[in-house]
Amino acid sequence: MHSLIAQCPACGAKNNIPLAKQHLSPRCGRCKLPLALHGQALPVPLSDSNFAPFIGGAPLPLVVDFYSPSCGPCRMLAPVLDRLAGRFWGRAIIAKLDTSRNPASAGRHQIRGVPTLLFFKNSQPVDQIVGAIPEPQLIQRVEALCG
Ligand SMILES: [Zn+2]
User: Fold this and answer.
1) Tens digits of per-residue pLDDT, 25-68?
2) What are the CA-CA distances from residue 12 to residues 18, 30, 141, 142 (Å)?
3) CB count in 10 Å sphere of residue 139
4) What is the pLDDT along the chain (147 residues), one digit of tens a residue?
5) Domains of the chain: residue spans and CATH
6) What is the value of pTM for the model shown?
C-alpha cells in the first residue's frame, strides 16, 4: 500500500518503490538504470510523524491534500490526485494527509475544512485551494506551481 511496483523497461525486473522515495531518482535494482515513473507515481501518504521533515526535504514543488476518509468531496478528489501524481512525476510531488488521524499537521497549517490543498515551494506554503475544483483547473494551478 505504501509502495508501488515499477517494471524496468530495460531488463524487465519488477521494482518495489516506496511511495515516499518516488521522487529520489529511483533506479532499477537489477540493472541500475534510472526508472521513470510518469503515469505510475502515486500520492505520498504523510502523517504527523513525517510531515515536517518530508516538506522540509522535498526536492520538488509539493501539493498536500488534507482530507478525511468520511468526506464525500475528498473521495471524489482522490482519483484526480492519483492522476496528478503520475502526470507531474519529476516536476511536482503530490502528497496527502488524513486529517482525522493526523490533527497536529492540519492544525499547524490552519486547515479549517476538507478537502484543502496546500501548495509548497522551497518548503513554504505559496498557494491553497479549499474544496474540490475541476481537474483541468487543478492541473493549471499545479503547472503554475511548477513554473
Ligand atoms: Zn532494470
Assistant:
1) 999 999 999 999 999 999 999 999 999 999 999 999 999 999 99
2) 19, 9, 36, 32
3) 15
4) 699 999 999 999 999 999 999 999 999 999 999 999 999 999 999 999 999 999 999 999 999 999 999 999 999 999 999 999 999 999 999 999 999 999 999 999 999 999 999 999 999 999 999 998 999 999 999 999 998
5) 1-37 (2.30.30.380), 44-146 (3.40.30.10)
6) 0.95
Catalytic pick among 8, 11, 31, 71:
71
Question: Is 146 one of the annotated active-site residues of the chain?
Answer: no
Active site residue 74: yes
| Residue 77, all three cell numbers | 478528489
Task: Strands of 76-122 (E only): list them.
Answer: 93-98, 116-121
Gap from CA of 62 to ligand 1 centroid (Å) = 28
Distance 20 CA to ligand 1 centre (A): 20
Contact 58, 118 (CB under 8 A): no
Neighbours of ion ligand 1 (CB under 5 A): 8, 10-11, 13, 28, 30-31
Cα of 1 to ligand 1 centre, how many Å?
A: 22
